[in-house]
């Protein structure tokens, strides 16, 4: 095996990954297509995850436990609201729907519908991963030298993966 087959800086790496809730075993996030990035240049994963990838080879599967409290903080119960269902438009009466509302400062924040019944509907403005303990399961698909262009751009030429975008896509 040559050195070029392991993950190190300036290698273009493709991987698949999913995020699994430790308590329930549910898959919270998965990617529909492999994620490609240049290691050490554009680490799309948190440092915590990137350092586990270093030195791995294609075919390796890595499990990295992450405490989402460190990333998103504790749950903030003041972001949970229950309203009379008559005040909520019909199309939002569905679990998992995202409703964007502005605060007093006019900053938008997403709220997710977590439950409703005949009388009330509850939304939660916490990030869905907030307060959970999860495991990132990463499968290394391929490793090669990055091209100069990829190193300059930090990733696949059209990719701009960002954890928050990935999480939003997952909702």
What does this protein look like?
The strands form 2 sheets. Strands 1, 2, 3, 4 and 9 form a 5-stranded antiparallel β-sheet that branches. A 4-stranded antiparallel β-sheet has the order 5-8-7-6, with no helix packed on it. The chain has 171 residues and is of the alpha+beta class. It is elongated. Helix content is 15%, strand content 37%. The chain has 2 domains: 3-71 and 130-170, Chitinase A, domain 3, CATH 3.10.50.40; 76-124, Thrombin, subunit H (Beta Barrel).
Compact summary:
The chain has 171 residues and is an alpha+beta fold. It has 4 helices and 9 strands.
Task: Supply database-style keywords.
171 residues; 2 domains; four-stranded antiparallel beta sheet; alpha+beta
Element layout with pairings:
Blueprint (H helix, E strand, L loop, with lengths): L10 E11 L5 E4 L4 E4 L8 H7 L7 E7 H5 L7 E5 L13 E5 L5 E9 L3 E5 L8 E13 L2 H6 L9 H8 L1
Described by the principal axes of the CA atoms, the overall outline is: elongated
The biggest beta sheet reads: 5 strands, antiparallel
Continuous helix count: 4
Low-confidence stretches: none
The CATH architecture of the largest domain can be named as Roll
CATH topology of the largest domain: Chitinase A, domain 3
Q: Classify the oligomer.
A: single chain
Number of domains: 2
Question: Briefly, what CATH class of the largest domain?
Answer: Alpha Beta
What is the radius of gyration computed over CA atoms, rounded to a whole number of angstroms?
19 Å
The helix-and-strand class reads: alpha+beta
| Counted beta strands | 9
Query: Which percent bin holds the helix content?
Result: 10-25%
Strand content: 35-45%
* Mean pLDDT across every amino acid position: 84
Q: Element order, helices and strands?
A: EEEHEHEEEEEHH
Distance between the termini: 41 Å
């Amino acid at each position: 095996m040559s050195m070029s087959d392991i993950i190190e800086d300036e290698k273009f790496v493709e991987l698949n990954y999913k995020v699994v809730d430790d308590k329930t075993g549910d898959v919270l996030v998965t990617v529909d297509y492999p994620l490609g990035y240049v290691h050490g240049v554009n680490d799309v994963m948190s440092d915590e995850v990137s350092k586990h990838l270093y030195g791995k080879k294609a075919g390796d599967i890595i499990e990295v436990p992450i405490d989402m409290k460190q990333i998103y903080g504790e749950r903030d119960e003041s972001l949970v609201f229950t309203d009379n269902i008559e005040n909520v438009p019909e199309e939002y009466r569905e679990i998992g729907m995202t409703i964007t509302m502005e605060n007093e400062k006019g900053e938008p924040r997403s709220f997710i519908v977590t439950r409703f019944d005949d009388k009330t509907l509850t939304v939660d403005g916490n990030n869905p991963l907030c307060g959970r303990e999860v495991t990132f399961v990463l499968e290394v698909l391929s490793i090669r030298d990055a091209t100069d262009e990829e190193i300059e751009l930090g990733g696949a030429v059209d990719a701009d993966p960002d954890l928050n975008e990935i999480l939003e896509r997952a909702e």
